[in-house]
Design goal:
heterodimer; A: about 150 residues; mainly alpha; 6 helices; B: mainly alpha; 3 strands
Chain lengths: ~150, ~250
């Protein structure tokens, strides 16, 4: 519970650093906390990275449509608690202790985590971006949206 | 020719702001093309990279104008990217003219920002609560706050000495680890939670995501450039921490 609260406040601070408009901060925090909760429940495996960032990206796209803002605002702040900082730190500590083999393991795990997050977000955005104009075309013929 | 000057400048300023504020390359390209169409150019071709862009306008009188603009600083202000996007939406719906668009873009670039001290405080709070997220206690949060504050408030100093910006990560990692190790010697604490928490806001999560997005959109050059930048940042940050920890 305490770590979810930490995640909430940290995400809001991070979003402020990115000059996120203040009126969307609650939505950003919501996205981040839901994503991190899913990540914790799934227990930090590779699929946990993938699924939680997929959920974050989908929620962000929905909020982006509601608030009429770019989804990047929500995705980037929302995904920051999941970014494998702890793994990377472990790798660095092991490296400093001359335990190269274990350090390599941790570093590769961290890299895979980064990759899974990026892939999940890319998939979600690609699907949404191609889906949305199709639905809109039913209503209005020529309205540029991107 | 002169009647297009404002429109040309507005399109280029929009693309420049997006690239400078950490937006994706394809977003800069799409924005320029949509705005160009909104201003009534016959055709706009743009080739953008994280470090600059070339743009060609085909004017209605069958002549062409090309420009090149270099991007020198790259930061992460997604709020500004969003503002530029809303201006470009208005332009492509032809709701505002070139003069108004240019003025709004200038306003976005010059709007009052947080003072360096405020930025450092928010950054430090961010570090402290990431430490809480990693199950740190109150003392850990305090140390993490101090480390984060030192890391962020020293960043403007690097610019003063003209230290190249990729080295920011190295110094940040070193300062972070040094303060943490010293404080733990003095008052004790959970080193894992503190250092990892203070590293979190510096990790290039966005850069990686943007890089993969760019690569998937077919912007291979931008994608690879951004992946290289992000990897360099991670490596330097790790090196900084490792150097101090292995002392």
């Amino acid at each position: 519970m305490l770590s979810l609260f930490g995640c909430l406040v940290a995400t809001i601070c991070f979003a402020l650093l990115l000059r996120t408009p203040i009126r969307v901060l609650p939505a950003v925090a919501f996205v981040a906390v839901v994503g991190y909760a899913i990540y914790l429940i799934m227990g930090g495996t590779l699929s946990a990275y993938f699924v939680s960032s997929l959920v974050i990206a989908i929620l962000s796209e929905i909020f982006a449509r509601i608030k009429k803002m770019t989804s990047a605002l929500f995705v980037v702040s929302g995904v920051i608690p999941i970014v494998p900082g702890m793994l990377l730190y472990r790798a660095v500590v092991l490296l400093a202790e001359d335990n190269t083999a274990k350090a390599g393991q941790a570093a590769i795990k961290a890299l895979l985590g980064f990759g899974a997050i990026a892939l999940a977000i890319t998939i979600a955005t690609a699907v949404f971006n191609n889906f949305h104009p199709m639905m809109l075309r039913l209503k209005s013929k020529k309205d540029t949206l991107y | 020719m002169e009647q297009y000057d404002n429109a040309v400048e507005a399109v280029m300023l929009a693309a420049q702001t997006i690239l400078e504020c950490g937006g994706e390359t394809y977003r800069a390209e799409e924005t320029a093309i949509h705005m160009g169409n909104g201003f009534g150019f016959d055709k706009v071709e743009i080739l953008a990279f994280p470090t600059g862009f070339f743009i060609t306008f085909r004017l209605p009188d069958d002549t062409s104008q090309s420009f090149t603009r270099r991007i020198h600083k790259r930061s992460l202000y997604l709020g500004d990217v969003n503002d530029v996007n809303s201006v470009s939406r208005l332009v492509s719906k032809r709701k505002i003219n070139a003069g108004e668009a240019l003025e709004r873009l200038h306003n976005i670039r010059q709007k009052p920002q947080m003072k360096p001290l405020q930025v450092a405080l928010v950054f430090a709070l961010c570090c402290a609560f990431f430490t809480l997220m990693f199950n740190g206690n109150l003392t850990d949060m305090l140390i993490s706050f101090l480390a984060g504050f030192a890391v962020r408030s020293l960043m403007p100093v690097y610019r003063l000495f003209r230290i190249p910006s990729p080295l920011d990560s190295l110094f940040s990692g070193m300062i972070n680890a040094a303060i943490t190790v010293l404080s733990i010697r003095l008052i004790g604490g959970n080193q894992d939670a503190i250092i990892a928490g203070a590293m979190m806001p510096l990790l290039p999560g966005l850069a990686f995501t943007n890089a993969v997005r760019d690569a998937m959109q077919g912007d291979l050059v931008s994608g690879m450039a951004r992946i290289a930048e992000a990897t360099l940042n991670i490596l330097l940050l790790g090196y900084g921490v490792a150097i101090i920890l292995s002392l």
